[in-house]
């Protein structure tokens, strides 16, 4: 199989390492190439050159939304999130999927043992990652979702989208502490705390209280300051690395129909991140 990744840039991506480790483990003869493509050149690059011959590919920033118009069909996962991160080629047709939501769900449920049904959730941030995570939580039966974001209008927009599946509302920054006090699951989807700004917290430290499960999508550093503070206060925590592994594993399953070697992919990712940070 010929598989790959398009984005701009792609040099930071850990997908090649994860995918190649997985191919070797399951005995699949496949290539996985990462190609940088600018927004302007996306339409012509999809139809020709190496990308034209790919059997499937991942899509990253800045093409997750722009690629939609260039595909033959969209899976429900992509149209409810409004972004594509995986393209499957079936009968010469390109179908867009989004594996971020399922990736997050599998990681959260498998690594913490909780089920999403019945959770009362506060999500920090209202960008693309928040949309993917919030949509799957809403569809899986979270009782209530509150969106807390620097830009209130974006939180309102996302809450409106989620209203199809669950009770969802935007939360003002002044009401954030109280919203978190009543939540069972608190998720950071912003980039606050990401390398190199590792000393930043997305909310005041005193808002973190022991009964809430604290989840952070950031995987570099592996343990953000937010997760560290939450752990010190006795919260159960969920790390960001798992979502990255599971979204890739699910993409591989869609392309090959085979079960992905999740732990092999996780080790490959951890190894590549430790090399990067030394
Ligand atoms: P992604 O696709 O990774 O989610 P994004 O769409 O750029 O990235 O969204 C980033 C989110 O993090 C946004 O909700 C952003 O808040 P705004 O909507 O106000 O822009 C939030 N964010 C990023 N940096 C932030 C900061 N320094 N303080 C508060 N919020 C921040």
Using brief descriptors, characterize the structure shown.
single chain; 278 residues; alpha/beta; Rossmann fold; 2 domains; six-stranded mixed sheet; six-stranded parallel sheet; 11 helices; 12 strands; binds 2'-monophosphoadenosine-5'-diphosphate
How does this model look, in words?
- The chain is of the alpha/beta class and 278 residues long.
- The chain folds into 2 domains: 2-98 and 242-276, Leucine Dehydrogenase, chain A, domain 1 (Rossmann fold, 3-Layer(aba) Sandwich), CATH 3.40.50.10860; 101-239, NAD(P)-binding Rossmann-like Domain (Rossmann fold, 3-Layer(aba) Sandwich).
- 39% of the residues lie in helices and 19% in strands.
- The chain contains 11 helices and 12 strands.
- The protein has helices at residues 15-26, 42-47, 49-52, 76-81, 100-112, 128-139, 152-162, 176-181, 225-232, 241-256, 262-276, and strands at 2-7, 31-36, 56-59, 73-74, 86-90, 93-97, 120-124, 144-148, 167-171, 185-188, 213-216, 237-238.
- The strands form 2 sheets. Strands 2-1-3-5-6-4 form a 6-stranded mixed β-sheet. The chain has a 6-stranded parallel β-sheet with strand order 9-8-7-10-11-12, sandwiched between helices.
- The longest helix is centred in the last third of the chain and has 16 residues, at 241-256.
- The protein is globular.
- The protein starts with a strand and ends with a helix.
- The model has no long low-confidence stretch (mean pLDDT 97).
């Amino acid at each position: 199989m010929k598989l790959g990744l398009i984005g701009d840039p792609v040099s930071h991506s850990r997908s090649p390492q994860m995918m190649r480790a997985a191919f070797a483990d399951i005995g699949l003869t496949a290539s996985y190439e990462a190609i940088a493509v600018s927004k302007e050149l996306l339409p012509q690059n999809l139809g020709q050159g190496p990308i034209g011959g790919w059997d499937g590919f991942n899509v990253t920033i800045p093409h997750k939304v722009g690629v939609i118009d260039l595909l033959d069909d969209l899976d429900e996962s992509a149209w409810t999130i409004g972004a594509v991160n995986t393209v499957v080629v079936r009968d010469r047709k390109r179908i867009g999927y989004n594996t971020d939501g399922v990736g997050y769900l599998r990681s959260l449920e498998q690594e913490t043992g909780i089920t999403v049904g019945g959770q009362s959730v506060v999500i920090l941030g209202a960008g693309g990652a928040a949309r993917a995570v919030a949509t799957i939580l809403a569809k899986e039966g979270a009782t209530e979702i509150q969106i807390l974001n620097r830009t209130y209008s974006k939180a309102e927009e996302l809450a409106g989208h989620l209203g199809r599946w669950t009770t969802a509302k935007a939360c003002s920054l002044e009401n954030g502490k109280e919203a978190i006090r009543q939540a069972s699951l608190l998720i950071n989807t912003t980039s606050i705390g990401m390398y190199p700004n590792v000393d930043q917290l997305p909310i005041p430290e005193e808002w973190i209280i022991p009964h809430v499960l604290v989840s952070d999508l950031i995987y570099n550093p592996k343990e953000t300051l937010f997760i560290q503070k939450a752990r010190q206060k006795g919260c159960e925590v969920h790390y960001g690395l798992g979502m990255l592994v599971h979204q890739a594993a699910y993409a591989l399953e869609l392309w090959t129909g085979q079960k992905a070697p999740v732990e092999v992919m996780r080790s490959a990712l951890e190894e590549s991140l430790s090399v990067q940070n030394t």
